[in-house]
Give the backbone structure.
Amino acid sequence: FAGRVDGVDLNPRWRFYQQRLPGNHWTAVARGPTTEVIDAFGEFKRTFTRPTDQLPPSEVTAELEAEEPPFEILPVAFLVPTDHIEGYEAAGGQKWQAIDAAAA
């Protein structure tokens, strides 16, 4: 859906999506032009590999209208770097076992 923020209509190139997560939680995702990102130190913008102003309009439209993929719920252990797993387990964490999609 398109939207308004603080009473101002948003650029029609913005889209918002909501998804229900387990435990009656919700998430919201906004898609919009990277040229409108507010980034005080430029650190986030430096991660952009394909800024909106470098894409053909048809590709921008296709991205905005693409179906929102479902979120995948992962445990905290998923975020633990491999070289820190032993310390994580020693502190009481449970090692995350990736499920091989080919075996499933």
